[in-house]
Amino acid sequence: MIEIKNLKKIWEDDGSSVLEGINLKIEDGDIYALVGRSGAGKSTLLRCINGLTSYQEGSLKVDGCEVKELKEKELREFRRHVGMIFQQFSLLERQTVYQNVALPMQCWKYSKEEIDKKVKELLELVGMSDKMNARPRNLSGGQKQRVAIARALTMDPKILLCDEATSALDPKTTNSILELLMEINARTGITVVIVTHQMEVVRKACNKACILEGGKIADEGSVREIFIKQPRSLRRLLGEEEMKLPETGHNIQIAHLLGSLEDGELFGKMSRDLDYVFPILDGKIMEYQNDNMGIFVINVDDEHLDAVTGYLTQRNYNWHELESAGEEA
Amino acid sequence: MALNNFTFAEICQMIIVPAFFDTLKMLVISGVLSTFLGFFVGVILIITEKGGLCENVVVNRILDFIVNTVRSFPFIILMVSIIPFTRLIVGTSIGDTAALVPLTVAVTPFMGRIFQNSFKEVDPALIEAAKSFGASKAQIVVKVMLKESVPSIISGLCLAIINLLGATAMAGAVGAGGLGAVALTYGYQNFNQEIMYSICVVLIVLVAAIQYFGDWIYKKLK
């Protein structure tokens, strides 16, 4: 479990603050996303977790152990149990795939037999057995990341940190890497912390997420909740222009997992049942893990507000009223 | 000794061939010594710099200053000015063995810079990755920085060794043997152009050989 309390970090060079008031709890077995635009501090926060960078105030505990207080040697020992993969893969170009994966174990002086067994097992797991003797420069981006994942897993870590691990990959490869991470998570119960700016990654792989803005937490919670709530930070992240909402009436946002075909009939049925025709201002369907989530905004006049909201609540649709731009927090 | 009494082949055998081996001996010994010492200079320079593995600005500044100072001496002046130091170490200031000291002293900082520059080219992300799986500082230097930069180090060493060859020829001026001394004494001062130019040819071939060999290894390792 990773517990972060009131964490604050400032750059020593100019005293500007990178992270402030960070409070998080990442449970064992979570696939947790730290999302935000570049410069939001997400990669820095990730590096605080394995002590690659330090923080000035607050506490960051991994399984009850305060990372800041670890001595050099303890920190090395601690890092054995925290694997990490990177955007640019960070493989040694002059070494073969096998040697790259073997490197951490060599550093920890495992026997040749142990290393051989583990490396082959992991290369099998990530589907790179046939490329064992290839050099990274002859591999595609996705293959390199698979090798990097194998390397990160050599010490059977409890936590895997992914720093923009899919940002340099095309969408299809991104998906295959995410599926691999999910598979490893399901099989070993490893905690995965993913730093990304791609919402697709969060939607596909993560169960919890935290949106960082300017070094602070803007929103946090289960991914499902965040998508249902559609907080402004999320919309900003998706780069969606602020929608111009009508000044009159009430703008209701409805988010719902589209389980069956009938869900698509909601508006037609509601209109018929309530004998009220309302405009749909916005609608989109996004993939959320294995489901589709529909997000709609409708405009309802004062007279029908209670009827509509009652109708939605009764049928377990998540809805909330959007306030006109500028007022919403 | 009047050289006129000998044929060119005899002169070659008597003077040029032994001189060639003297040069080779100086080149190899001071080359190995300065590579070894230069490695440590390069490692210390790179790990103590700002943001390095063992950041230490004071050590870095001092070493940097020494390296710059030694490198700014023309070799012939350096050789003469460190004579007391040479005597202290090898007991004499004349001859091949004595020449090894100034040669090593002169080339070590150059080698240091070569290692430093090669290490600098190693992607910092690799070092971070090595840290992330708990590699020690020594392991990072040897298993990551050194291993990744071998080709670049080889081409740098090649440069330095050719430089060193030039310096061995100069060392001839103060009593070390070797091709340089022969070219000067038997060739230049004796008005024997045959000897002088044949030594030039030997040097040209030697430089070309070192360069080709270096390029060949570079290609193999890259």
Automatic annotation (TrEMBL), chain A:
<dbReference type="GO" id="GO:0005524">
    <property type="term" value="F:ATP binding"/>
</dbReference>
<dbReference type="GO" id="GO:0005886">
    <property type="term" value="C:plasma membrane"/>
</dbReference>
<keyword id="KW-0472">Membrane</keyword>
<keyword id="KW-0547">Nucleotide-binding</keyword>
<feature type="domain" description="ABC transporter">
    <location>
        <begin position="2"/>
        <end position="239"/>
    </location>
</feature>
<keyword id="KW-0813">Transport</keyword>
<keyword id="KW-0067">ATP-binding</keyword>
<dbReference type="Pfam" id="PF09383">
    <property type="entry name" value="NIL"/>
</dbReference>
<dbReference type="GO" id="GO:0016887">
    <property type="term" value="F:ATP hydrolysis activity"/>
</dbReference>
<dbReference type="GO" id="GO:0006865">
    <property type="term" value="P:amino acid transport"/>
</dbReference>
<dbReference type="InterPro" id="IPR041701">
    <property type="entry name" value="MetN_ABC"/>
</dbReference>
<comment type="similarity">
    <text>Belongs to the ABC transporter superfamily.</text>
</comment>
<dbReference type="InterPro" id="IPR003439">
    <property type="entry name" value="ABC_transporter-like_ATP-bd"/>
</dbReference>
<dbReference type="InterPro" id="IPR027417">
    <property type="entry name" value="P-loop_NTPase"/>
</dbReference>
<keyword id="KW-1278">Translocase</keyword>
<keyword id="KW-0029">Amino-acid transport</keyword>
<dbReference type="InterPro" id="IPR003593">
    <property type="entry name" value="AAA+_ATPase"/>
</dbReference>
<dbReference type="InterPro" id="IPR050086">
    <property type="entry name" value="MetN_ABC_transporter-like"/>
</dbReference>
<dbReference type="Pfam" id="PF00005">
    <property type="entry name" value="ABC_tran"/>
</dbReference>
<dbReference type="InterPro" id="IPR045865">
    <property type="entry name" value="ACT-like_dom_sf"/>
</dbReference>
<keyword id="KW-1003">Cell membrane</keyword>
<protein>
    <submittedName>
        <fullName>Methionine ABC transporter ATP-binding protein</fullName>
    </submittedName>
</protein>
UniProtKB/TrEMBL annotation, chain B:
<dbReference type="GO" id="GO:0005886">
    <property type="term" value="C:plasma membrane"/>
</dbReference>
<protein>
    <submittedName>
        <fullName>ABC transporter permease</fullName>
    </submittedName>
</protein>
<dbReference type="GO" id="GO:0048473">
    <property type="term" value="P:D-methionine transmembrane transport"/>
</dbReference>
<keyword id="KW-0472">Membrane</keyword>
<feature type="transmembrane region" description="Helical">
    <location>
        <begin position="89"/>
        <end position="111"/>
    </location>
</feature>
<feature type="transmembrane region" description="Helical">
    <location>
        <begin position="59"/>
        <end position="83"/>
    </location>
</feature>
<comment type="similarity">
    <text>Belongs to the binding-protein-dependent transport system permease family. CysTW subfamily.</text>
</comment>
<feature type="transmembrane region" description="Helical">
    <location>
        <begin position="195"/>
        <end position="214"/>
    </location>
</feature>
<keyword id="KW-1133">Transmembrane helix</keyword>
<feature type="transmembrane region" description="Helical">
    <location>
        <begin position="153"/>
        <end position="175"/>
    </location>
</feature>
<keyword id="KW-0813">Transport</keyword>
<keyword id="KW-1003">Cell membrane</keyword>
<dbReference type="InterPro" id="IPR035906">
    <property type="entry name" value="MetI-like_sf"/>
</dbReference>
<dbReference type="InterPro" id="IPR000515">
    <property type="entry name" value="MetI-like"/>
</dbReference>
<feature type="transmembrane region" description="Helical">
    <location>
        <begin position="27"/>
        <end position="47"/>
    </location>
</feature>
<keyword id="KW-0812">Transmembrane</keyword>
<feature type="domain" description="ABC transmembrane type-1">
    <location>
        <begin position="20"/>
        <end position="214"/>
    </location>
</feature>
<dbReference type="InterPro" id="IPR051322">
    <property type="entry name" value="AA_ABC_Transporter_Permease"/>
</dbReference>
<dbReference type="Pfam" id="PF00528">
    <property type="entry name" value="BPD_transp_1"/>
</dbReference>
